[in-house]
Amino acid sequence: MNDVTIEPFDLAGRASEALAVQAAAFGLGSEEVAVRLQIVGRHALVPGVRAFGAVERSDPRGLGRLVGFGYGMPNDRSHWWSSVIEPHLEANGLGFWLDQSFSVTELHVHPDYQGLGFGRRIITTLCAGTRLPRTILSAIDRETPARALYRSLGYQDLARQVMFPNTAVPYAVMGAQLPFPARR
């Protein structure tokens, strides 16, 4: 695993590879991947979007095999995600988190590479490059390794039991101040 580097990647050009990682990590079917492919294509065009991948360089194909990825952008209250979470945040007196925040839109690591620190390296690299004072994301609302990772970076629950359209499981909205605290 020493030949995996965290580096910027072309979100639009490698969206299919990224979604293959997400499908493996989340158990997505081909129909869901097709829908998400369109969403990723739109996100790739958003001003300020940043994308980093965990790239295995031992792959003989030349570009390197994408084994994890994350991307995000400055949060925009007009985007659908913000419109879904806004009432939950406002109810908790935390609506200000929608402003001046870097939204981590997706972060996924292929199951064969999970637990090796790549998720941490991707999210810290992704958020280190923003000048915004905080970061916000959503994660499945149950105790998972991802939620433990986010907490270790200083993320706290801002809202829980948030239901997004076309999902059957509740999500938690989490936020952290930037920069992340030094790792102990």
Mean pLDDT: 94
Q: Oligomeric status of the shown chains?
A: single chain
Distance between the termini: 23 Å
> Level of helix content?
25-40%
Number of distinct helices: 5
Cα-atom radius of gyration: 16 Å
The total beta strand count reads: 7
- Stretches with pLDDT under 50, minimum 5 residues: none
Structural class: alpha+beta
Content of β-strand: 25-35%
- Biggest beta-sheet profile: 7 strands, mixed
Strand order of the largest sheet: 1-2-3-4-5-7-6
Order of helices and strands: EHHEEHEHEHEE
Q: Which outline best applies?
A: globular
Describe this structure in words.
This protein is an alpha+beta fold. Helix content is 31%, strand content 28%. It is built from five helices and seven strands; from the N terminus they run E-H-H-E-E-H-E-H-E-H-E-E. The chain has helices spanning 15-26, 30-43, 80-91, 118-128, 145-152; strands at residues 4-8, 50-56, 65-74, 101-109, 134-140, 156-162, 171-177. It has a seven-stranded mixed beta sheet. Helix 4 (118-128) links the parallel strand 4 and strand 5 (134-140). Helix 1 packs across helix 2 (30-43). The longest helix has 14 residues, at 30-43. It is globular, with a radius of gyration of 16 Å. The relative contact order is 0.15.
List keywords for this structure.
184 residues; alpha+beta; 7 strands; globular
Write the layout of secondary structure elements.
Layout: E1 4-8, H1 15-26, H2 30-43, E2 50-56, E3 65-74, H3 80-91, E4 101-109, H4 118-128, E5 134-140, H5 145-152, E6 156-162, E7 171-177
Parallel strand pairs: 4-5
Antiparallel strand pairs: 1-2, 2-3, 3-4, 5-7, 6-7
Helix pairs in contact: 1-2
